[in-house]
Amino acid sequence: MPPPKDVVKIAIQMVGAIPQLIDLQQVLPGTPKPTWSLPNAEHYALQYTDGRQTYITESNRGEIKNGSILRLTTSPDQEAERLYSGIQSNNSDVKTDSLKKLASLSQDVTFAQEYINRNGLKQIFYIVEEGNDTGDMLAHTLKAFMELMEHDFVSWETLSAAFIKKIVSYVNMNAVDASVQQLSLSILENMVPTSRLLFELVKKEVTLDRLLTHLQVTNAQLQLKAMALLIALLLAATDAERRDMMDYLRQKNIRQFIHKNIIHSSEPLGDEMAHYLYVLQSVSLNLCERRMRTSMDPYSQEQRELLQSLRQTAFESENEAPASNFSTERRRSLCAKEFRRLGFVNNSNPAEDLRRAPPGLLALDNMVYFSRHTPNAYSRFVLENSSREDKHECPFARSSIQLTLILCEILHVGEPCSETAQAFYPMFFGQDHFFEELFCICIQLVNKTWKEMRATQEDFDKVLQVVREQITRTLSFKPTSLELFKTRVNALNYSEILKLRQTERLHQEETLAVPVLELRERLKPELLELIRQQRLLHLCEGTLFRKISSRRRQDKLWYCRLSPNHKVLHYGDVEEGVHSPPIESLPEKVPVADMKMLLMGKECPHTKEKSSGKQNKDVLELAFSIVYDVEEYCLNFIAPTRYEFCLWTDGLNVLLGKEMMSERTQTDLDVLLSMELKLRLLDLENISIPDTPPPVPKPPSNLNFCYDFSYAEQ
């Protein structure tokens, strides 16, 4: 008879005693009773021996698994009392050891509650504000403070001004231990998003110059924490403050420094730093949003002057006599003619062309930048097209307006930052005026492609579609500089685009023949099994996941991997820098047999918990959960990338005996089918495959031509 579902077999250890095996009933209240005789049993509690060494309470006892090893140790309230006394000791060794133990135990919510209830935070405030302790003792103190605040029992807004100023001083001082500075930067990073008052205080006390100094150190972790605080300040700032901060950072050449010393450093770029660089890129590009969403005001003197400067730069050399010598009517007629040659649709009132937002005034800014910074290329573009026949001229203004809109869509200008994305363009950090310089390259590409296509005005949309394809295909290679982008995008001319399209079309036509479709169907089961094996192999290798809260992007990491026999999921917390921990170091387990279902997106409990706040669609697209056990516990994931999301959800569906549903499955299947079909049809190259098989000929009137084997045998 199998044991009841609510009974698990566990081992309990105690220092100086023989371990015991007992049966634990998870549904009954009370602590399991080992046979050791202990005075004051209420002073003891059970604790996991591995992982984060969490205390067992009534709320989490249901999570204990068969085969768990627990330790009988001092209860959280007794341990909190002991450490509280130890921190008050005059013996520096006792005090340091107590703070070190406090930093470790504060990760447990039960202990943290007990310690905070004893006014433990006052002890920490006193140690920091007095400022007498340094080195390891101070580092343990700050680490303990970080862990205690992580549980959200105490608001960040309750911190005293003296405490905050002391933390700021550790950031601003030079002769301070690096670990203390890292923790201080992390504390300030957590503080900034919680209230406007704290943001203003940190922004005032920690200057951008100081953060730039920390970014220039060789210590990668200190560099990372400084970048994290910089990003937190940028995200918490108002639009005007953010613009001022970015202008100052541009004056200090932060982009060139990042391009040289972070992106191209000898150390590989970590996921966290990649995310911060993505956010910095996104914040910088979003500074264009205001101009992008603002229509041109025909009554604005400044905007009218910018518009007139385009005309004057292009045609001033042609006008032998000054315009003031002409009558008003003649001058108006001349301006309308020149605006038409510039490519404005409404040449009598070109401001009307810029009323559409987006791209709004951003298109005008780009045109003016192009005319002022590359005047020769600008004049050549305009005058070259002015001399063509009307039907073949490439309209500069109309092309610029549409190109600006295309670049805004490709670069996601005006979209909120993702909490998980890491995709940034290295070339962005190699140039101060990135958007404008990219426009200058691409508007010349429009003219080049227009000539290659021998386009007319009716082909305008087709040309811009080709240009969009040229830009997106080139950006997919992640060029490291604008010069490299320019070289590659110009090499990808219209004929190359046609070849790529033709190859894709021919491939599609080949695969649509009836015999080929039948062969595809026969090959599918075998290739799907290959994909299933690959998914399970990926789960066995494991993946590093991040814990993300509604308050901030967290530094905490955890790893999950499938056992080689595909029967158990192992997971546990890991430290930064650990990429493939051994399966033995992951303490938590979920048997595959206990898994009930897979939830994705909005169905996941950890996305529902945050439904009151502003939902980020990227997090929803990467979230999935495993429901397991009779009590229907959930193991919640947020994948680092869409690729990992697809592989993990496919693999878990395979373990659950269900179909793989991700878009990656179809992509992989198409690639494998394409390769297999090409190999199978190699001998039929340049031979057309009929849609129907040829007819079978009628049988012959006699079979006398058949060889009679019976005579040969005799």
Q: How is this structure best described in words?
A:
The chain has 714 residues and is α+β, with helices and mostly antiparallel strands. It has four domains: 7-74, Ubiquitin-like (UB roll) (Roll), CATH 3.10.20; 77-285, Leucine-rich Repeat Variant, CATH 1.25.10; 293-316 and 330-505, no CATH class; 525-667, Pleckstrin-homology domain (PH domain)/Phosphotyrosine-binding domain (PTB) (PH-domain like, Roll), CATH 2.30.29. The protein is 52% helix and 10% strand. The chain has 29 helices and eleven strands. The protein has helices spanning 76-87, 92-105, 109-117, 120-130, 135-149, 161-172, 178-191, 196-205, 208-215, 220-236, 239-251, 254-263, 271-285, 289-292, 301-315, 328-342, 361-373, 375-386, 396-410, 434-453, 460-475, 482-491, 494-510, 514-541, 605-608, 617-622, 642-655, 663-680, 709-713, and strands at residues 7-13, 20-25, 44-48, 69-74, 543-548, 553-562, 568-574, 588-591, 595-600, 623-628, 633-638. Strands 2-1-4-3 form a four-stranded mixed β-sheet. Residues 611-615 have low confidence and may be disordered.
